[in-house]
Amino acid sequence: MSVPDYMQCAEDHQTVLVVVQPVGIVPEDQFFKIYKRITSVSQVTIRDSQRLLYIRYRHHYLAENNEWGDFQTHRKVVGLVSITTCSSAKDWPETAERFHGQKEVYSSTLYDSRLLVFGLQGEITEQQRTDVAFYPSFEECSDVERRVEDFVESIFIVLESKRLDRATDKSGDKIPLLCVPFEKKDFVGLDTDSRHFKKRCQGRMRKHVGDLCLQAGMLQDALVHYHMAVELLRGVNDFLWLGAALEGLCSASVIFHYPGGTAGKMAARKPSISHPADAGKRHRP
């Protein structure tokens, strides 16, 4: 990665990444006040499946890190929450355009997004839109947490559909080769019909499905897929992806053996306003 995160721990592998950012001019104290409320929704029980979805929030995340999303799915931005102020109806089109531009930055990986607008009143606010919520002020916004929960559920629906789609064995379909950014040039001109290449594709996809299962709360399925990936990738000496599959397997095993979190009783899923300075507390001594 362009910026390694040395504070990562096992539990981070089962989280989905949501970026929360201001659009336009938003007072810093008000932004972090809302950010703190948003990050309080760190886990959501999905109603129909009774599975837990864990969320990791960042207010700053380099877009180029998204290029590593196929390698480790917890590194890709799948959700965006934008916070903005808008005082009059004539400013609304420009605000909406800025929000659209912000979505474009993460468009290759984004599952869903929301815009929270503060200060705007009138006819525009009466329009029913799933991706926009209007509030009269930063003080009058009692349902922010509920809206974030609904947003997280919509992310889960997309995640689950991707997991099911990629976990299904479609005999005859060509499995795409997942790559990290620097590998793409190395595979130009390779024989894509060789047994070695097909096994590489299968192994990498199994590892990817293991990541999706872990995020979607399917721990046992994740372990199965990681084990299969390890065997396939070891057989073709695909060492970078073998290492990633073993890391996924280790993370899933730690989560299985320490369901309360690796920080013991004080399970550290607490949100942090700054860069993940609190992440170190999640490690066992």
TrEMBL record:
Q: Please report which protein family the annotation says this sequence is part of.
A: Belongs to the NIBP family.
**All copies of domain Trs120/TRAPPC9 N-terminal, residue ranges:** 186-259
Annotated InterPro entries: Trs120_TRAPPC9, Trs120_TRAPPC9_N
Instruction: Supply the name of the protein.
Output: Trafficking protein particle complex subunit 9
Where is region (Disordered) located? 266-285
Which gene is annotated as encoding this protein in its UniProt record?
A: TRAPPC9_2
- Highest taxon of source: Eukaryota
